[in-house]
Amino acid sequence: MPLFALIDRWLAPAPGAGRVAWIAGRLFAHRGLHGPGMPENSPAAFAAAIGRGLGIECDVQKSSDGQAMVFHDWELDRLTGEAGPVDRRSAEQLGRITLTGSEDGIPTLRQLLDRVAGSVPILIEVKSRKDRPVPPLCLAVRRVLEGYRWPHAVMSFDPRVSAWFARHSPQTVRGLVVTEEGSRALPGQIRRHLSLWHARPDFLAYDVRDLPSSFAAAQRRRGLPVATWTVRSAELRRIATDHADAPIAEGAGLEPLP
């Protein structure tokens, strides 16, 4: 067995099958089932996903007063009529900002969980910045998740997030988001394994543009489910079907394959 594979098993052991069984075979709506009148990460987009029985993938970052807010961009400009950093506004202020093309305000993670209430599973991407500590953000998410007993998981590009949950909230299913960025040579392989060993994830969320991937396949064989993002076409849906367990999709990627 190659050295990397041995270290993977030692430093990042695979989860029990029952812990992550709910991920495999599910189709997740990327930032909700968004479209005209239903912006990404909006209550309307999440309601539409629930209506179709789709799992939900969403993004979470922290408000100025430490609340977990469901919003992707660091700045308000693209998705609202306001400008400036999200983390300079309080949860109350953000909730009053209307998402462009709708009447919805920016929701809190608690509002989303209250709306879902176990009707579909949720993947929560925790958005961190490399130059900032992650504990305040992770604590904000954990506070909301306490007592939520239905299928859910956190995930992040930042291995510090998964590592924090492994240590401080081990009951929470946690994932590592991976993109290979065109680096399949040895330096890229080393970086991916170092992230894996640091994060100790229960599953991977892999860039579909990098599939098939020997790294993803090796983790999948040893029991880590592989979700894949962002599946936007029938062609990418076929790749996801062949090389992953759970597509995170939008648009044409959500339609059944012929």
**Major sheet details:** 8 strands, parallel, barrel
Number of domain modules: 2
**Mean pLDDT over all positions:** 97
Q: Helical residue percent?
A: 25-40%
The proportion of residues in beta strands is: 15-25%
Spatial strand order of the main sheet: 1-2-4-5-6-7-8-9
Give Rg in angstroms: 18 Å
Task: Give me the CATH superfamily of the largest domain.
Answer: Phosphatidylinositol (PI) phosphodiesterase
Number of strands: 9
Give the SSE string: HHEHEEHHEHEHEHEHEHE
Structural class estimated from helices and strands: alpha/beta
Number of helices: 10
CATH-derived topology of the largest domain: TIM Barrel
Give the termini separation: 39 Å
The level-1 CATH class of the largest domain: Alpha Beta
What does the overall shape look like?
globular
The CATH architecture of the largest domain can be named as Alpha-Beta Barrel
Low-confidence stretches: none
What does this structure look like?
This protein has helices at residues 3-11, 17-20, 43-51, 91-95, 109-116, 135-145, 159-168, 186-199, 214-221, 234-243; strands at 28-30, 55-62, 68-70, 122-126, 152-156, 173-178, 203-207, 226-231, 246-249. It is of the alpha/beta class and 258 residues long. The protein has two domains: 1-26 and 154-253, TIM Barrel (Alpha-Beta Barrel), CATH 3.20.20; 29-120, Alpha-Beta Barrel (TIM Barrel), CATH 3.20.20. It has an eight-stranded parallel barrel, surrounded by six helices. Helix 1 (3-11) runs parallel beside helix 8. The termini are far apart. The mean pLDDT is 97.
